[in-house]
């Protein structure tokens, strides 16, 4: 489990499939097994408090992004929802609004262009189709469809990308609307041809 602060009132937690299986949770449980998910959320919040001093009170919005062959990203934001604004709330309690999304896309963000190029070189042999490249909020973001990875080597493919970048919870729809398209098709092969 990796926890990082995104702002004063927002954190991001990345849970690998191993983190989930260690807790006896499958990705499908997120949609069906409420007690297990509740226990997982409490554990996440304890770790966030220990590592970052992030404490819950009042309204909380939780976005859970299930990522193929990787695990999930949980974004927790506190104190932003207006639906509780007029209600009195106990300081020790928190209201919870959860959004669950599952994606067949593999999306990785790279802060450094050189890391992007190195990742492209390493994963090229795993691809039938080279994905798309966007620029969004200071990051280069590669987007792949799981079906583009040859011979179902998705785990190895993701492991290689993880050496150079990090899983991005940003959806392809957000990138298409707000990001800048750098290379729309076959991005990996184009990067290699121009920068190797």
Q: What is Rg?
A: 18 Å
- Report the strand count: 10
Question: Alpha-carbon distance between the termini?
Answer: 35 Å
Number of helices: 7
Average pLDDT figure: 78
When the domains are counted, the total is 2
Portion in strands: 25-35%
Account of the protein in words:
- This is Adaptor protein.
- Homodimer.
- Belongs to the MecA family.
- The protein is α+β, with helices and mostly antiparallel strands.
- It folds into 2 domains: 2-102, no CATH class; 105-195, Alpha-Beta Plaits.
- It is 34% helix and 33% strand.
- It has 7 helices and 10 strands.
- The chain has helices spanning 17-22, 29-32, 34-52, 113-123, 154-164, 172-178, 187-195; strands spanning 2-7, 10-16, 58-67, 71-78, 94-102, 105-110, 132-136, 139-145, 166-167, 180-183.
- It has a 5-stranded mixed sheet with strand order 1-2-4-3-5.
- β7 (132-136) and β8 form a beta hairpin.
- α4 runs antiparallel to α5 and α4 (113-123) crosses α7 (187-195).
- The radius of gyration is 18 Å and the shape is globular.
- Mean pLDDT is 78; it is low at 80-96.
